[in-house]
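Researcher: Sequence of Ketosteroid isomerase-related protein follows. Predict its structure.
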Amino acid sequence: MAQYDTNAAVRSRVTLRQAGHKEKVDGTIRFATGTIPTMSHPNTNSELIGRFYQAFQKQDAEAMGACYADDVVFSDPVFGELRGEQARDMWRMLVARAQDFSLTFDAVTADERTGRAHWVARYLFSQTGREVENRIQAQFVFRDGRIVEHRDSFDLWRWSRQALGLKGALLGWTPFVQGAIRAQAKKGLDAYRSKRG
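Model: Prediction complete. Tokens:
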């Protein structure tokens, strides 16, 4: 059986099989650290989201990318919109550069076409050495058992206050500073991709 490294939640009707008994549960189910209960009718898209974030917890960018469709569209407030291999390379770059990284996720919900999750990343921002805790809402669209759209949203000003310190606190809300953050992210990703060939 697969192992959860953190709490995860799946919103669906499932049958739990633990300690030799069955219990039907409606609503949000939180799995504590340990073995994932067997589901009699698993929501495969919820499981797909779980696999993506479990791979992220292990800093396995290849397994993360395997959850994506070839033509995936990713977007967030820093990198903007990335497509296909650009999105996979972004995760490869972030995982390779991660320092003191940890991740938790919960509130996973999904149906046949769309899904959502909440995740929190904690790490040292390499450019300043400052600790960051980024709280992110993720939205997904699925096709043929893969993620075809992944849109992360978070408060960029909150992030800049943590990552950049006083400069971020005073100016992180301005279009100028937010534009500079995006330009730096694009430059870093372009450089990473050029080195990969």
